[in-house]
Structures are given as structure tokens and as C-alpha cells.
Amino acid sequence: MADTCAMTMAYGGGSFDALSRRLRTPLMQFFMRRTGSQADAEELVQELFLRLLRRKDLFSLQNLDGYVFETASNLIRDKVRRDTARSKDRHDDVSDLDIAADAPSAEQSLESRQRLNRMLAALDTLPARAQTIVSCAGLRI
After folding, report:
1. Are 72 and 27 in contact (CB under 8 A)?
2. pLDDT higher than threshold 90 for residue 93
3. Contact 120, 141 (CB under 8 A)
4. DSSP secondary structure code for residue 95 in this structure
């Protein structure tokens, strides 16, 4: 944080601030046209301003706007390379898919509970010895 403040002061107090205010909207439009994503455009604008802040001789450049937009073009190329390497566009969005869950549905749970109750009622009608035999056979309730 201290380095960023020192860099801002080194650029003449508010010069970098004025540059960022002047170019923020055009850069957002530039990135939005190329990415189609508001979030990606915001991220790229922030990354661009960080790169500009790190350049000590920024305000000594003859064509500062040209440099800024050339750097923006490079950021787009870097993003495309990263996305391609990560295969971002090769994955399908599965958040909207209706995927079967391992848990039984409410209807299945109700049906199972009713079957169990019928079986318990049937076991209660057996004589005690038959109930013991069924129990010993491995029926765990």
C-alpha cells in the first residue's frame, strides 16, 4: 500500500488519478466489446491500472494514451491465452441441469416408510417364536 501511495505521489500528486478518471470509461468500453463480460472488463481495467502504476516513467511517454491502449490489447491477448490454456470455453455450465440426487425423493421416502410399517404390522401378527426366527435370520429393524 505504501508503495502505491509513493508511486502516485511520484507521478505528480493527482496525475495518475486524473489519467484513471479520464480513461476508465473508454477502457471499460474497450474491454466490454472484446470480452462481453462486465466482470472481466472490470478485472482487466484494474489489472491495467496496476501495470501502469508499476511503470516509473509512465508520464514521460510521448503517446501515453496509445501506450495505455496497446497495453490493454496485450491484456486481452494474455486473457485469451490463459482462458485457452485453462480450457474455460470447453466446459459446459451444469448449474442449470437437473441432476439426479443420491438421496431418495419425498415420494420414495414415504413409500418406503409405508412398506416398513406394513412389514412391522405383519411381523407383530406372527407368534413370538416366528418373530425370534426372523430376527435371528438377520432382519434388523
Report:
1. yes
2. no
3. yes
4. T
